[in-house]
C-alpha cells in the first residue's frame, strides 16, 4: 500500500501501460513503414485507417495482415523490408495522446512504479520511448519479444510485475485493445481501457474492463479514487 496526497491508502503500487494506441499515436510511422514495405514489394499503398485495424498483435501479425492481397509473398522478406523502413521512421511522427504525459507525471507523483508492456519488437521500443520523452517516466519496459509469449498471453504482464516488485493484485493494466484486456484478465489484474486507440477495428466498449477512462490523466484520477 502507498499513501497518496489526501492521506488515503491506495492498494495499487504498479501501473503497466500499453504503448501503441494508449500512450502514443504511432499509426503514422507504422503506416509509413507498412507502405514502404509494400512499395518495395511492388504493391500499392494501403489506407492508413485500415492499417490501424491491423495493429495490436505485434509486427509479424501487422505485416501478415498488411499482405492479405499478396498470399505468395515471402514473410521473411516482407519483415526485413518492414524493419528497414520502421527503423528509419520510428518516432518521427508518433505523438503522445492528450493527457498522456500529464498522466505519467501524476502517476509517478502518486509513488507508483510504471512499466510499458508492448507487443512492439524490443529493437523499436527503447528508441521510441526516448524520442517521445516517455523513457524518463518508466521503470521498465517489456516488448513483444522479451518473453516467450506476447499479449494477449499474460506472461509479459507477469514479467513486468516481477520487474516492478508488485503482485498482479497490486498492479493495473492500462490499454486500448482486446490484447491488453485478455492479458490483464488472465494475469489476475485490473484493467482500464482508453477509447481512442487501435482495438483491431472494434469498439472498446466490447472489452471486459474495470473502467473506460478518457485519458491517462483520467486513469490516474481513477487510481487515486480506488
Ligand atoms: O505492436 C503492436 O502491434 C501493438 O503494440 P502495443 O502492444 O504497444 O499496442
From TrEMBL:
Highest taxon, organism lineage: Bacteria
Catalytic activity: 2-phosphoglycolate + H2O = glycolate + phosphate
Entry EC number(s): 3.1.3.18
Swiss-Prot/TrEMBL keywords: Calvin cycle, Carbohydrate metabolism, Hydrolase, Magnesium, Metal-binding
Biological processes per GO annotation: DNA repair; glycolate biosynthetic process; reductive pentose-phosphate cycle
InterPro entries, sorted: HAD-like_hydrolase_sf, HAD-like_sf, HAD-SF_hydro_IA, HAD_sf, PGP-like_dom2, PGPase_prok
Binding positions (Mg(2+)): 18, 20, 176
Reported cofactor(s): Mg(2+)
Enzyme class name: hydrolase
Active site (UniProt): 18
This protein's GO CC annotations: cytosol
GO molecular function: metal ion binding; phosphoglycolate phosphatase activity
Recorded metabolic or biological pathway in which this protein acts: Organic acid metabolism; glycolate biosynthesis; glycolate from 2-phosphoglycolate: step 1/1
Subunit and partners: Homotrimer.
Family the UniProt entry places it in: Belongs to the HAD-like hydrolase superfamily. CbbY/CbbZ/Gph/YieH family.
Task of the protein: Specifically catalyzes the dephosphorylation of 2-phosphoglycolate. Is involved in the dissimilation of the intracellular 2-phosphoglycolate formed during the DNA repair of 3'-phosphoglycolate ends, a major class of DNA lesions induced by oxidative stress.
Name of this chain's protein: Phosphoglycolate phosphatase
Organism: Paracandidimonas soli
Classification of source organism: Bacteria, Pseudomonadati, Pseudomonadota, Betaproteobacteria, Burkholderiales
